[in-house]
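By convention, the token line describes the chain's fold. To illustrate:
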Amino acid sequence: MTAIAREDGSIATLSAAALQTCIAGGFKILKDVPHHTYSWVRVTWVSADCPIDTCIDVTREICVALWSSANPAIGFVDIEDVGSFKKLCSECSKEAREQHTVGRQRMWDKLPVYFGWSSWNDVLK
């Protein structure tokens, strides 16, 4: 990480402790993405209302696209851009979007915890 020059000519840097907090928080976030944002992506997942039998194969393709990627940020891309998402039937894609949104909200609510705060209230004090 590099220092950033401010308008007044001084240099903005993070302390070693702050850098460690950021790195550790980033790893915690990456670890939680499969359990929150993409908790619906399981090898055998389909909506209970799925009218076709191909969605389970599509879900497997999505699993492979997400978890075999060398890019850890793939967990943060728009759900529509993940693997074969657009091949899911309307019922499965609707439920996946809903679960994805709930998972993203859980991640957002938990964001302060990843970086050592107990809640958003503590961050906003």
In short: The first strand starts at residue 4 and ends at 5. The CA atoms of residues 31 and 95 lie 23 Å apart. The two ends are 28 Å apart (CA to CA). Residues 15-124 form one domain.
